[in-house]
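FAQ: What does the model actually see?

It sees only this:
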Amino acid sequence: MFCTSVMSSASRASPPPWYTHLTLDLLLHVGSYTLFHPFVASLIPLCLRALAAEYTSTSFIITSAYAVFVILCHILSAVNQRWAYGPPRKVKSLDEVVVVTGGASGLGRCIAEIYAMKGTSVAVVDVATKESEEGEREGIRWYGGDVGNTRMMDQLWKRISQDLGTPTVLINNAAVVNGKPFLSLTAEEVEETFRINTMSHFHLTSLFLRPLLATNTPGTLVTVSSILGRLGASNLSAYTASKAAAIAFHTSLAAELRPSSPQIKTILVTPGQLDTAMFSHIKLDWFRNFFGPVVEVRELAMKIVKTVDAGEGGTIAVPFFASALAWQQVLPKAVQNWLKRWSGADTAMMAPQERLVDEKAVGDSDGENESE
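And it is asked to produce this:
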């Protein structure tokens, strides 16, 4: 399938260095099943007691307090999930109808293929799908169409409902990016970016919600945005603004649906850099990769499908720095600017000549010689 074939071919062409797999996210993942797991944390004081440690000993008191802290964190996390998003809805894969926009490649296609393997009815809407290519292949129903064209989407949505049934899961994933300086953007490029990245969410979500709310049918809405919608980046003004608008739209809609329609679950996805063609030219050194690794498409796709199938709402932010970004906002602005500069977010989308000049300027100011 696409998810595995792309990854395997990429690894055969240029296998990454071994240290690219050693990341902060990996350490935290291992820790979640070891030191940060309630069962393991509880075993430590029990083992000390088995070794005849006194109840009043410092080691027993510290490990017991740590075990209580870990258990409380897990309990409070579960309580927070329940209060914030309500009880999960019942999901039966064979009864769901999933619509994925921008599913001809990348994250959208990987999600579609996972659902197809599960036997779920899945429709992919992508402008890259030609009329001659429409139809069912490998368990996926393909439809060609521009998500930013409202009239076309009205007709296409009727076709999907007639072919597969009323959609119960909508994954708004389609997006375009123009990596240009602000003054190089044309009005047409800005309009296209917002039409596809933001305005399509409004119209497709309206088509999605109307029949579900009319019949009180459970469903799940997934908004695929980007961490750049919260962070912002140089040479990506249109893209980051459209993604920020998508985040605001999702947040406002979720607040509107929560009290009146709790059967509709909402999931906001704000990943960092994905290993897709959209940002494939951006390379990270080992230190930056440790804190902000490139997210594998199949990993994110599995997280999204897992959350949808669990019937839960929530936010998916990977890698770890994407979920911890809110803490950065409390830092002084100068420190925030330095962190962005160090991460390479403001130079990633520069043209090669511009990037070379910029890096040379940074090297001269730091008293170091840098070269590419």
